[in-house]
Amino acid sequence: MTTLTLAELAKITGGELFGDHSAVVTAVAPMDKAQEGHVTFLSNPKYSKHLAACKATVIMVKASERELCPSNALVVADPYVAFALVTQALDTTPAPAVDIAPSAVIAKDAKLGKNVAIGANAVIESGVELGDNVVIGAGCFVGKNTQIGQNTKLWANVSVYHSVVIGEHCLVQSGTVIGSDGFGYANERGEWIKIPQLGSVRIGNRVEIGACTTIDRGALDDTVIEDNVIIDNQLQIAHNVHIGYGTAMAGGTIIAGSTTIGKYCIIGGASVINGHIEIADGVTITGMGMVMRSISEKGVYSSGIPLQTNKEWRKTATRVHRIDEMNKRLKAVEKLLEQKNDA
């Protein structure tokens, strides 16, 4: 269990502490459940009415809420960012691997940096380069000539195909596949002819990839994930997709081939993005968005029908099926009105 004094919390967050510098905390908790020894935070002012009843040892708040805190207060610029920094300091998640397991299979010409850890039954093939402090979890496969930068961690059973490049300080969760073949085929009189995928995947620095996500290698050029991108669980990222700096993508999203997504985009869960299109910087697509055409301007975009009762949905579906008929009737009415106005 990690223990931090409030003075240490102030240093970690860059905040100003009002209260007992020597008091200690061991965990983060929600405001309504926090007890002595806990640190909590207020990021939404509408919940400030609950501050007086909070039992946490310290509450991280903006300056405007400090006087409402019943005990120690840590004034920070952004309480949610402070929360993230404190959880990092208190994190007790074990490493995916420690040392090099005897059952790991490592090619003789693989290059391993300092303090590399490789878990049980992992396979490191010929020509692989692992930077300093890389951690490869149990059961991982790292294919020929792949490069993985320093301080990157792969959790158990990640498969990285040949000639993939992964940058520094990345985190890849279990079951993810990087560098599998893109979906490329030609058709000759009904027979499918496979197109070997000759590109690769290039992943930048500080990229996090969730569990069971698939990132396909490019057909000719590479599939590219730029720095500081965060990718949730169970995404399909097809061949030759390019994802810009700082973009975040939620679970279940599917991105078809040769699509370019700009910088600082936010893609809601279960969205579907068509291939061979471009999405501008700063675009937000809300959950279950269906993107069929390029988006050239920054903004928030939505599609789909929000949940209704089954009775309401059946009425909506019936009306949708009658759109063509209703359009014809509307045009007929407009034509009659024009004739009347011309008379």
UniProtKB/TrEMBL annotation:
It holds the Pfam family Hexapep. It is an enzyme of class 2 (transferase). Pathway: Bacterial outer membrane biogenesis; LPS lipid A biosynthesis. InterPro entries: Hexapep, Hexapep_transf_CS, LpxD, Trimer_LpxA-like_sf, UDP_GlcNAc_AcTrfase_non-rep. Signal peptide: none annotated. One of its GO terms (molecular function) is UDP-3-O-[(3R)-3-hydroxyacyl]-glucosamine N-acyltransferase activity. Its EC number is 2.3.1.191. It catalyses: a UDP-3-O-[(3R)-3-hydroxyacyl]-alpha-D-glucosamine + a (3R)-hydroxyacyl-[ACP] = a UDP-2-N,3-O-bis[(3R)-3-hydroxyacyl]-alpha-D-glucosamine + holo-[ACP] + H(+). The active site is at residue 239. It comes from the Bacteria. Keywords: Acyltransferase, Lipid A biosynthesis, Lipid biosynthesis, Lipid metabolism, Repeat, Transferase. Residues 24-88 form the UDP-3-O-[3-hydroxymyristoyl] glucosamine N-acyltransferase non-repeat region domain. Belongs to the transferase hexapeptide repeat family. LpxD subfamily. PANTHER family: UDP-3-O-ACYLGLUCOSAMINE N-ACYLTRANSFERASE, UDP-3-O-ACYLGLUCOSAMINE N-ACYLTRANSFERASE 1, MITOCHONDRIAL-RELATED. Catalyzes the N-acylation of UDP-3-O-acylglucosamine using 3-hydroxyacyl-ACP as the acyl donor. Is involved in the biosynthesis of lipid A, a phosphorylated glycolipid that anchors the lipopolysaccharide to the outer membrane of the cell. Homotrimer. This is UDP-3-O-acylglucosamine N-acyltransferase. It comes from Vibrio tritonius. The gene is lpxD.
